[in-house]
Amino acid sequence: MAAFTGLDSVGLYLSGGATNYSPANSLGGAQSAKLIRGMLPVFNTPVQGLIIEDATPENLEGDASIAIASGQATYTPPDGLAGSAVAIAAGERAVLTGADTTKAVRVYRETGKTFLGTATFALKDAMNGVFAMSNVPDADRVAGSTVYRAIFLQAFQDVEAILCWITTSGQSSFQLATEEPDSGGDIQTISDEETAPGGLSWEDATAESTGILVGDSNGDLLTDETYGLWIKRTFPPAGVVAAKEQVNFHLQFVAG
Question: Does 5 fall in a domain?
Answer without folding.
Answer: no
